[in-house]
Amino acid sequence: MTKTTLTTRMRTLTRLTVANRVSAVYLALVGGAMAVAAAQPLFATGPDASLIWVWPALFTFPAFGFVAWLGEAGWGGDAPTWFFVGGIALSALAQSLALGALWRALRGRRAERTHHLTAAN
């Protein structure tokens, strides 16, 4: 594989992951939920203060389920915080890539369909 091919593939993956509307909105949603969850202990000290982290996990759920399973298997329920926060971030990026690929496929079909329908047909 040449350097140009590798660069092209990396650019394509980056575009699919962060450089389209659907992925950008999804990443902003997850990032906002993580920012609120990280800032929440500054404002509330109640017994339910740590439950705010459920929202970022739910927003990344299909992929985060695997991370939660790994945490349970590896640490027996006492996984460190960095593992879950990193798992949420990686899950969000993986799902953003999937959303970007789906968005590209749907837009490609629409563009293909409108390309074939011309006034001459």
Q: Describe it for me?
A:
This protein has five helices and no strands. With 121 residues, the chain is mostly helical. Helix 2 (21-43) packs antiparallel against helix 5 (81-116) and helix 4 packs antiparallel against helix 5.
- What is the overall shape? globular
* Class inferred from helices and paired strands: mainly alpha
Strand residue percentage: under 5%
Helix residue percentage: over 70%
**Assembly form of the protein:** single chain
Return the average pLDDT rounded to an integer.
85
SSE ordering: HHHHH
Number of helices, counting only DSSP H or I runs of 4 residues or more: 5
Biggest β-sheet description: none
Number of strands: 0
Model regions low in confidence, pLDDT < 50 over at least 5 residues? none
**Compute the gyration radius: what is it?**
19 Å
Distance between the termini: 42 Å
